[in-house]
């Protein structure tokens, strides 16, 4: 992905020059001073890679780079098609993006279309466009659960708002694999005539945030909330209402009171004052279903002050103690959706988690808890029913976190203890004393990480190992 | 046929349900192509230009009572339970279902419990107020969308004060649409021996556009022994006595117009949870011409 970088800078200069012209001469733009535009070529793969297109398998995430090939023995039209061999369960997955070296201007199109067939009826995990590291996948668009039949058939992925796609490099991506034993795998997928088209039949825009729900959330100053459940739905010529998952940047968000909450283009709501604010969104002039009302009540109260002496404690995250190790609280695990932030002021800081599926706190140095018996943690939640899963991991003598990628359980010399933090009180801190039990009862001299699941939104403080 | 200069538009898409309908025209089209290949490729779509009546829906409120009446209910009062097609709506004349606003007639289908039905809508008829034998009948409309929507602009023959019954009176469907097919409309005739599922029909498919996002003109030009069907500036079908498997009942009586938005039933299928309500059919104008 790093090779895609040299074109945008050219455009940068065009913008700067224009700005200069406006400010220095105070004249109207002349007809000649048009913005440089990227080519409007809509072709992705017809009989060959279109101009500048390249293949980038998700090798880092475990995708099989050999799974893709261009074939001539099974095509819809012309003389070549794309082929993906989806491995059987446990043998990796098909995952790749097809990006161009020269970005494309896709504003004249309304859909990505392709013909596809599979060697057996299959449900494609994800397919779409907009993976573009240069712009942080700003316009990522994903169709999940697309059913592919064993005959060549045309599929349509509507563009949420094409006016945004003035310079897009990520033209096509997919991820498909057997995600459990018994899920389809060991079969073949073919794609042909992959291109952006202006069908003229993509209509009845029906965007949504928070999956169309109108939410209310108690919040506090300096916290942030991620807008989730972002989708755009269009009615296709086939009569189908086709929903795609969209990146936040297709939306324009607004706050009814910008003294209480503001929203950035990545869909992050920052609470900045006390009061009430309603957050809504539009795509291309169409109001999205769903909203969130923020009721902000000032700053977050402090967690209960720890009382144990420092000598009894090896601290991971607490303002009350000297910490035993540096930590990485945003490890960026592949597939993690978690947004973690350090909030609050000096001497009274918290770890705030939003949209969590799984993440972790990685210890820079392992902690020897042989003489310790419990882990303390304080949790603050704002939504009833929130539960947080905690896995205390001993990473063993080899000092490496080893996890079975299919089961999620410790591998090699790793051990862990898992527990769920439940019955959390809304709007106040709940303290837990977790025994160092289970798999780590007799192996806790190399504690290296705390894996955190569930939520999805919660705040943590005062994480430390101790003995009474 | 000779008065219709037909040259094939390259983007004129159609599918024929009745192969025989068009075979008679092929030869003429070919001649047209040969003789007119140097001229422009526009069709002569209509030839009846004497305006008889028009409603441009310029006065807000209820539709003009001098032209439009209403069929009310679920069909049982008319002896047509569920309007003969298992339709789900209860027709009313309430402003929630029908009104003129900002230059358009709005017929709105709603999902609501009403008089034992789950949906309400409206059906306007010119019966007893306006009918005419032969002529050009057209309306400019924007259709609703979604599974189960069945908008229609159509005509029925005068029933001679109840003496004659359908299908003997004849039915000319200028435009019918299934809401789940936003690019397709169908024009049909029904008569004795060729009614309901055996109607003589042909569909017209819009290329790169939809009937629910913009206005389109749906019309027929009807004369002795022929009915021509058009959408916008495209003539897509002609039905003559040779095309129908029974008596041609379109030379002997005047016909009146109907505009309605039905919901569900045997023609279109019922709405599902993807169907958005309410749905509104907009009519910009209705015009009738004579030669």
Structural class of chain A: mainly beta
| Total domain units of chain A | 4
Instruction: Please state roughly what percent of the residues of chain A sit in beta strands, choosing from under 5%, 5-15%, 15-25%, 25-35%, 35-45% or over 45%.
Output: 35-45%
What's the count of strands of chain A? 32
CATH class of chain B: Mainly Beta
N-end to C-end Cα span of chain A: 52 Å
Per DSSP, the total helix count of chain B is 1
N-to-C SSE string of chain B, H for helix and E for strand: EHEEEEEEEEEEEEEEEEE
Largest interface between protein chains, with number of residues from each side: A-B, 11 and 17 residues
Structure description:
The complex is a heterodimer of chains A (468) and B (291). With 468 residues, chain A is mainly beta. Chain A contains one helix and 32 strands. In chain A, strands 2-5-10-7-8-15-14 form a seven-stranded antiparallel beta sheet, with no helix packed on it. In chain A, strands 1, 3, 4, 6, 9 and 11 form a six-stranded antiparallel beta sheet that branches. The longest helix of chain A is centred in the N-terminal third of the chain and has 18 residues, at 8-25. Mean pLDDT of chain A is 89; it is low at 1-26. Chain B is mostly beta strands. Chain B has one domain (47-290): Sandwich (Jelly Rolls), CATH 2.60.120. Chain B is 6% helix and 40% strand. Chain B contains one helix and 18 strands. Chain B is globular, with a radius of gyration of 19 Å.
């Amino acid at each position: 992905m790093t090779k895609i970088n040299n074109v945008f800078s050219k455009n940068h200069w065009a913008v700067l020059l224009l700005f200069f012209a406006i400010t220095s001469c105070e004249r109207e733009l002349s007809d000649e001073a048009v913005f440089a535009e990227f080519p409007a070529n809509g072709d992705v793969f017809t009989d060959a890679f279109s101009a500048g297109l390249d293949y980038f398998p998700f090798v880092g995430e475990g995708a099989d780079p050999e799974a893709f090939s261009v074939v001539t023995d099974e095509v819809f039209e012309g003389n070549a098609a794309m082929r993906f061999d989806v491995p059987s369960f446990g043998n990796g997955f098909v995952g790749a993006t097809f990006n161009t070296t020269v970005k494309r201007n896709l504003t004249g199109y309304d859909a990505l279309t392709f013909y596809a067939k599979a060697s057996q009826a299959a449900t494609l995990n994800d397919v779409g466009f907009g993976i573009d590291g240069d712009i942080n996948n700003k316009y990522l668009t994903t169709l999940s659960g697309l059913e592919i039949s064993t005959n060549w058939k045309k599929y349509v992925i509507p563009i949420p708002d094409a006016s945004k796609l003035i310079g897009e490099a990520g033209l096509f991506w997919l991820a498909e694999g057997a995600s459990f034993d018994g899920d389809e795998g060991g079969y073949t997928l073919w794609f042909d005539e992959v291109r952006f088209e202006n069908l003229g039949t993509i209509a009845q825009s029906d965007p949504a945030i928070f999956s169309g729900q109108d939410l209310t959330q108690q919040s506090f100053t300096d916290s942030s909330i991620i807008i989730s459940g972002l989708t755009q739905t269009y009615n296709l010529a086939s009569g189908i209402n086709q929903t795609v998952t969209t990146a936040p940047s297709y939306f324009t968000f607004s706050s009814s009171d910008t003294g209480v909450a503001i929203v950035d283009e990545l869909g992050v709501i920052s609470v900045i004052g006390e009061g009430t604010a309603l957050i809504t969104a539009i795509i291309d002039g169409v109001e999205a279903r769903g909203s969130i009302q923020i009721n902000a009540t000032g700053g977050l109260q402090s967690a209960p002050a720890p009382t144990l002496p420092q000598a009894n404690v090896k601290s991971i995250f607490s303002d009350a103690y000297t910490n035993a190790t540096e930590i990485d609280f945003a490890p960026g695990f592949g597939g993690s959706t978690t947004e973690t932030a350090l909030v609050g002021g000096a001497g009274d800081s918290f770890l705030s988690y939003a949209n969590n599926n799984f993440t972790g706190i990685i210890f820079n140095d392992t902690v020897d808890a042989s003489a310790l018996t419990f882990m303390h943690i304080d949790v603050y939640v704002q939504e009833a029913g929130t539960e947080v899963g905690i896995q205390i991991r001993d990473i063993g003598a080899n000092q490496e976190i080893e996890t079975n990628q299919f089961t999620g359980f410790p591998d090699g010399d790793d051990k862990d203890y898992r527990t769920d933090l439940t019955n959390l009180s809304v709007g106040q801190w709940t303290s837990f004393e977790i025994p160092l039990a289970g798999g780590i009862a007799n192996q806790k001299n190399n504690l290296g990480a705390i894996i955190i699941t569930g939520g999805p939104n919660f705040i943590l403080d005062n994480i430390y190992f101790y003995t009474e | 046929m000779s008065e219709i200069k037909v040259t094939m538009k390259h983007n004129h898409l159609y599918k024929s349900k009745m192969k025989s309908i068009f075979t008679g025209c092929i030869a003429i089209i070919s001649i047209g192509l040969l003789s007119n290949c140097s001229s422009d490729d526009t069709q002569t779509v209509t030839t009846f230009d004497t305006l008889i009546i028009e409603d441009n829906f310029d006065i807000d409120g209820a539709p003009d009572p001098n032209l439009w009446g209403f069929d009310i209910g679920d069909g049982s009062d008319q002896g047509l339970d569920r309007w003969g097609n298992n339709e789900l709506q209860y027709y009313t004349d309430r402003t929630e279902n029908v009104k003129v606003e900002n230059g358009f007639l709005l017929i709105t289908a709603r999902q609501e419990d009403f008089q034992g039905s789950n949906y309400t809508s409206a059906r306007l008829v010119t019966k007893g107020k306006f009918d005419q034998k032969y002529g050009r009948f057209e309306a400019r409309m924007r259709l609703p969308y979604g599974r189960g929507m069945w908008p229609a602009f159509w005509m029925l023959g005068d029933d001679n004060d109840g003496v004659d019954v359908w299908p003997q009176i004849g039915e000319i469907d200028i435009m019918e649409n299934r809401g789940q097919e936003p690019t397709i409309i169908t024009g049909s005739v029904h008569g004795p021996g060729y009614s309901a599922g055996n109607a003589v029909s042909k569909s017209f498919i819009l290329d790169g556009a939809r009937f629910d996002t913009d206005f389109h003109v749906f019309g027929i030009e009807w004369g002795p022994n022929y009915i021509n069907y058009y959408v916008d500036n495209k003539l897509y079908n002609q039905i003559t006595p040779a095309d129908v498997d029974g008596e041609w009942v379109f030379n002997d009586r005047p016909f009146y117009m109907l505009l309605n938005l039905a919901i569900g039933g045997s023609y279109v299928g019922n709405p599902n949870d993807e169907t958005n309500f309410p749905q509104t059919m907009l009519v910009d104008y209705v015009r009738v011409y004579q030669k």
